[in-house]
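cron nightly-structures :: item 1 of 1
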Amino acid sequence: MEFDAALLAAFIMYLGCGFLAGALIGCIGIGGVVLVPLLVYFGDVDIKLAISAAMFAYIVSGLVGTFIYAQSKSIQWSMALILFIGAAPGALLGSWLVAVIDGDFLKALIGILAILSGVQTLRGGVKTDHSDTPSIGATPLIGIGAITGILSSLTGTGGPLVLVPLLMWLRLPILLAIGLSQAIQLPIATFASAANLMAGNFSWVIAISLAMGISTGSLIGARVAHRLPTATLKIIVAVVLAFVGGFLFLDVLS
């Protein structure tokens, strides 16, 4: 009975972590950056196990977020499909690197990535509509997809953390950038999870509880995003990135 109570408490904690990350993912696209730190610092989960479980959960959040943003016509599918070409092999490479890289280095990498993304988000202007959306060639998009796949599966952030600031820097409308970041979770999370399962670095208990929480949170967050002013979305993105990034980086240095 004591074991069951402990298991239930852990399940609820993982569920809560997934819900919080999912709400941020659905709303601003980059909530995955908080998921691994929450599991590591509040759930006492090994960082590599946390990354693999988080990547599986992003399959669910990607499905939910993609459905909501597609309904709102906030996904440009021609761009999404080209991004997928680079993201899939990038995700496989990133998952392989997780097994050979030190955990503290991964924490520092997530922190630096979050801070830089937050700064870039604040520096760049925000387009509020889809008019005059800049044209981006197939080769740059494949390269962006590959970079997103590698860094996302390596750090357990799912894709949006890297992709949203990059697309905003390229002057895409913020809702379009977030919509593409929802869709790119699918190939990255699927290929990364397959690699993690083959490597044996996986926990179904953590993964399933995260998936349940993240799906509910993503649904709510995506609905909220389409009701908030784009300037507010930009500020939320930058603040969350800077806070989480600074916390992780300072923790590694201490």
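cron nightly-structures :: done
The mean pLDDT is 81.
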